[in-house]
Design brief:
580 residues, 2 strands
């Protein structure tokens, strides 16, 4: 069998898997079809295994593709064995339940297989077209469209959904925003909520991170172009470690989310109003770490049963901070602590490795984040003392609520207060925190803490008559300063344009409410004062565009479209322009 024919058969089986998974999950099937599910999935799996075995012997033993093929065979054979093992071990169950459990294992195995095939397809695109910015933007755009189509399946929603609402929800999930036009807990089935949380997970990490994850584990080679792109995407200096860092990001994320789900489950174990506590814990752990802000609770955490669960709120705050502080800071801090720990056990004969490991980026991220959290907490604690904090009797409850109100505006989107009834100064501070957002290289949005810090330091440097920013023994490059001010300018222009358009489409709405929603959309925060569900269709499209631009960064898109300017080896005469 020729390799080209085998590739066509591969694509045919991929289409079959996709068709049956969508048909099985998304539509209500007749009872006559249910007994045929296992034979259909078994046949498809057997075909894939057969094609992989044939393909395995078509490549030389030294070919790295053989590693991928062996993995394909292993995952599918494991799926078959697990499915039939469950089937026979549960033979005492009624016939319907006997069929359901192996079916779920088949579906999980085939879904994982499709995800792996998708990542290899993206790697193929790298080879035929390589523009890092366009690939980054394109991957999000394709995911938004796929998510919209999945959310329009009949079994995903309770009463159906329009295209604009599906597109809005998909964009909000992929861009980890959290703004919602429908009630996630009531208008979506558990399948729909599962689709949303999968979109959040992929959007928070990025499909290209998953691509590198599979490339690191299941393929032995990767192109130099891929490494160069992932070097920028993962903020890694060493070109040899980019795929390893991507794998560590995925592993760290899943580990923290699993740990967070365990602690969330422990904090809600006594709450009887939550039906499926395991799903609730997993959903909100992923949503919190990815700074998405989606919740299966209709009023987020303002629900009476959740508003006073302070242990739950502290777990969520830790997940939000860890997810929003950036992977580069986390890994850099881990390296520093590891180096310091090892130095404690080094003998006198061995040289202590007391080299500089804490980067300037990590210091700026830590200091800026700490200042924002502290200032936000102090402000909310005193400004809301006679407003939203009155509902809490204990001092610990007031501290927790004030701290939660300081943490979540920076792209998380959860709320334990009703923002429609907070004081106007508090709303303005929330807008400011949303605009700054999380740290670079994180799952959050906004202009980023480092951008705000660089702009602030440049103001002080200019006021002192300095031509450059110096911190300790380091100097901030002019390119970084220029990029910071470009990001700030683009954000204000985008948000200002969105506010004008919404005022045009919604003339009866309040200006502050519209500004709040636009800042929330651009910063992918997701906080709302209950305006988004009441917007007209044109206004929803405006917010969709703002969420998308806020997540991908308009500057990245412009770089991809306009290209890099060639370095010039000449300089024109300088001339000063009056600016004050």
């Amino acid at each position: 069998m020729k390799i080209k024919t085998l590739q066509n058969l591969y694509r045919f089986t991929d289409i079959l898997i996709l068709f049956f998974l969508i048909f099985d999950f998304g539509f209500s099937v007749n009872e006559e079809y249910k007994p045929f599910r296992i034979p259909i999935y078994s046949t498809i799996t057997s075909l894939i295994i057969t094609f992989n075995f044939i393909k395995l012997f078509r490549y030389p033993k030294s070919d790295p593709i053989r590693k991928t093929i062996r993995f394909n065979i292993a995952i599918l054979v494991t799926t078959l064995i697990a499915a039939f093992t469950v089937y026979y071990l549960n033979s005492h169950l009624p016939p319907v339940e006997q069929l359901m459990r192996p079916k779920i294992i088949f579906e999980l195995g085939l879904f994982f297989y499709l995800l792996m095939r998708l990542t290899f397809f993206i790697k193929y695109i790298y080879k035929i077209y390589f523009n890092p910015a366009i690939l980054f933007v394109g991957s999000f755009f394709i995911l938004v469209l796929i998510g919209s189509l999945l959310l329009m399946l009949p079994n995903v929603t309770v009463n159906g959904i329009s295209f604009v609402d599906a597109l809005f929800t998909s964009t909000s999930a992929i861009c980890v925003t959290g703004l919602a036009v429908l009630d996630t807990g009531k208008d979506f089935t558990q399948l729909g909520q599962t689709v949303i949380i999968i979109l959040i997970q992929i959007g928070g990490l990025g499909i290209l991170t998953f691509t590198s994850f599979f490339a690191y584990f299941f393929k032995e080679n990767s192109s130099f172009r891929e490494s160069m792109y992932m070097k920028d995407y993962t903020s890694t200096e060493n070109l040899q470690d980019v795929f390893k860092i991507a794998a560590q990001i995925v592993g760290f994320t899943l580990g923290i989310e699993l740990l967070g789900a365990v602690f969330i489950y422990m904090s809600i174990d006594t709450i009887s109003t939550i039906e499926n506590k395991v799903f609730f814990s997993i959903f909100h752990s992923i949503s919190a770490f990815c700074n998405a802000g989606f919740s299966t609770s209709s009023a987020s955490f303002y629900e009476p049963t959740l508003r006073y669960d302070y242990s739950l709120q502290w777990v969520l705050m830790l997940l939000i901070i860890i997810g929003g502080i950036g992977y580069s800071f986390i890994f850099n801090s881990f390296s520093y602590l590891k180096r310091s720990f090892l130095n404690l056990f080094r003998t006198k004969n061995k040289v202590s490795t007391t080299v500089r490991v804490i980067t300037l980026n990590s210091k700026i991220t830590l200091v800026t984040t700490s200042i924002l959290l502290a200032v936000g907490f102090i402000f909310f604690y005193f400004a809301e003392a006679n407003y939203s904090l009155q509902d809490h009797d204990s001092t610990f409850g007031k501290i927790t609520t004030a701290m939660f109100s300081s943490v979540t505006p920076r792209t998380a989107g959860f709320n334990t207060v009703d923002y429609a009834h907070v004081a106007t100064p508090s709303l303005l501070v929330v807008i400011f925190l949303m605009w700054i957002g999380a740290s670079p290289g994180s799952t959050g949005g906004g202009i980023k803490t480092s951008t705000f810090a660089i702009a602030t330091l440049n103001i002080f440097a200019t006021a002192r008559g300095k031509k450059r920013i110096e911190i300790n023994t380091r100097e901030i490059s002019s390119n970084t300063v220029n990029r910071a001010f470009s990001i700030i300018s683009i954000s204000l222009i985008t948000i200002g344009t969105a506010i004008l358009l919404l005022l045009f489409f919604e003339p009866e709405k309040d200006l502050l409410a519209i500004a709040f929603e636009c800042f929330s959309a651009y910063s992918t925060s997701g906080l709302s004062i209950n305006l988004t569900p009441t917007l007209s269709e044109p206004s929803k499209y405006v917010l969709i565009a703002v969420m998308f631009v806020g997540r991908i960064g308009l500057l990245n898109l412009l770089f991809g479209m306009l290209g890099q300017v060639e370095q010039k080896f000449y300089q024109y005469p300088q001339e000063n322009i009056l600016i004050n």
